[in-house]
UniProtKB/TrEMBL annotation:
PANTHER family membership: TETRASPANIN (PTHR19282), TETRASPANIN-1 (PTHR19282:SF216)
The protein's name in its UniProt record: Tetraspanin
Native organism taxonomy: Eukaryota, Metazoa, Chordata, Craniata, Vertebrata
Membrane topology: Multi-pass membrane protein
InterPro entries attached to this UniProt entry: Tetraspanin/Peripherin (IPR018499), Tetraspanin_animals (IPR000301), Tetraspanin_CS (IPR018503), Tetraspanin_EC2_sf (IPR008952)
CDD domains assigned to the protein according to its UniProt record, in alphabetical order: uroplakin_I_like_LEL (cd03156)
Organism the protein comes from: Catagonus wagneri
Spans traversing the lipid bilayer: 12-33, 53-73, 85-110, 212-238
Length: 241
């Protein structure tokens, strides 16, 4: 009984933390989606890529809602010893865990297929919106500046974009000189060809592989927590009176 009570208490505290994190993510997601400028005014000076948060507002809302519901079910199920809530908590976590494993397998095994699919999705959007959609343009500028990359594949992704049509130049990040860590402006076609800056997709893959131990450790930690939560919820479910 003492072991059961201890596990039950830890389950409640753990899910209370998830519940609060979900509520915080949900609140921030709604804030940045409804009133992005005020968010930028407060956090913009702290990060050159803060604008990216404005464009993931809906993702934050979705993630926050899932964590909020998950934390509530786990906390409520453990506190009231409700078998239905505990089973729902288990199945939601199981679905998330399977989805994460599937995504990891696809990312590792079908990288070229994923790149082809994303190219078909992202490149036309760049050609259509870069230079005309302010938020979209700022997100790409922040990404290219942070990763020291150019476009999704390379500088040719910007050909035909509103930015290129208006300026007849490529974004300055496409002419980044790694020798002295500066950009060459104006970024003409000849300069972009000469610098041959890598696309952001390949650069991101390179960064992930370079930090594979850290990425793998974080992924393993998250997976371990999810497995532990599923085991605990099933233990409480099976030992309910």
């Amino acid at each position: 009984m003492q072991c059961f009570s201890f596990i039950k208490t830890m389950m409640i505290l753990f899910n209370l933390l998830i519940f609060l994190c979900g509520a915080a993510l949900l609140a921030v997601g709604i804030w940045v989606s409804v009133d992005g400028p005020s968010f930028m005014k407060i956090f913009g000076p702290l990060s050159s890529s803060a604008m990216q948060f404005v464009n993931v507002g809906y993702f934050l809302i979705a993630a926050g809602a899932v964590l909020f519901a998950l934390g509530f079910l786990g906390c409520y199920g453990a506190k009231t010893e409700n078998k239905c809530a505990l089973m729902m908590f288990f199945f939601i976590l199981l679905v998330i865990f399977i989805a994460e494993v599937a995504a990891a397998v696809v990312a590792l095994v079908y990288t070229s297929m994923a790149e082809h699919f994303l190219t078909l999705l992202v490149v036309p959007t760049i050609k259509k919106d870069y230079g005309s959609q302010k938020d979209f343009t700022q997100v790409w500028n922040s990404t290219m500046e942070g990763l020291k990359c150019c476009g999704f594949n390379n500088y040719t992704d910007f050909e035909g974009s509103p930015y290129f049509s208006e300026n007849h130049l490529f974004p300055p990040y496409c002419c980044f000189d790694r020798t002295n860590n500066t950009v060459v402006e104006p970024c003409t076609r000849d300069e972009a060809q000469g610098k041959n800056v890598q696309g952001c997709f390949n650069q991101l893959l390179y960064d992930i592989r370079t930090n594979a131990v850290t990425v793998g450790g974080v992924a393993a930690g998250i997976g371990g927590l999810e497995l532990a939560a599923m085991i605990v919820s099933m233990y409480l479910y099976c030992n309910q009176k």
